[in-house]
């Protein structure tokens, strides 16, 4: 019986690792981008059981394969551990140019509104992005919403509604449908207390799941990357990307947009699934252009959703950041081709599904 368990665990770890190497939009392939930590744990368990249970060349082969799985998966997540060098420096340069931001996928079916209200009251962020909000959530959060002078909402019953709030001065903001008519995003030009302008992007594309491949998700992420590349302002991007930080798409997003990731060198900051602490992965993101420094970033407690909230304080300090931060990794020809193809294929998928929005990101 133990032999069967060892082979089953080893097969799962090896198959998941091999499938994650395949460039594809298919949900049953792209889903293996997510559980890299879980696959390491499965491979370690298979390894621990194989040594006393198996023998001879079978044991040698299985141990070698599991070590390769652990090595490859460890290589992919290594940047998101404290062992790696950080990309974004911690520094408070000018408090008037610092911004506190909060992003949370509330889980539409979660009706314990008060815990979310209490959390927002406690954190008191300058910017709030809430995802999966329907009319029930919008009504329940009215006391919170009314406290923010700038507010935009797209309540939807399809798990993709959003609420965007800020107390900071807003030059322009827009809820837009980048690819299809069912998945909104938010773009805004905001100023700090000292008058420094920046662009804010809030995203919540669809995840890979049965019946939902990743063309449209990848296209939304690529459009947001291109938008950051074209603007002269600092850019802050947040949201539930339904993609992990180490995926090919997220890495393309970073390079094309010139983003830095404050999690690099600090930890996974894993947010989903909220009820499985050892098996979570980082679905909820904060990316920033190299004009920002980091004050703090936290994954907050579970308040009834399947995601955990993310809160961060960052400062716009271009001159200091240029010295303190790493340079963003430059995109190559493959990244640019990937961006163009992702946008093209996402728009094509939306047309084929009859959900094409004809939308685009606002002008930078």
Automatic annotation (TrEMBL):
The keyword NAD does not apply. It holds the Pfam family Exo_endo_phos. Signal peptide: none annotated. This is Endonuclease/exonuclease/phosphatase (EEP) superfamily protein YafD. The lineage of its organism: Bacteria, Pseudomonadati, Pseudomonadota, Alphaproteobacteria, Sphingomonadales. The keyword Nucleotide-binding does not apply. It comes from Blastomonas natatoria. It comes from the Bacteria. Residues 103-307 form the Endonuclease/exonuclease/phosphatase domain. GO terms for molecular function: endonuclease activity; exonuclease activity. The chain crosses the membrane at residues 36-54. Keywords: Endonuclease, Exonuclease, Hydrolase, Membrane, Nuclease, Transmembrane, Transmembrane helix.
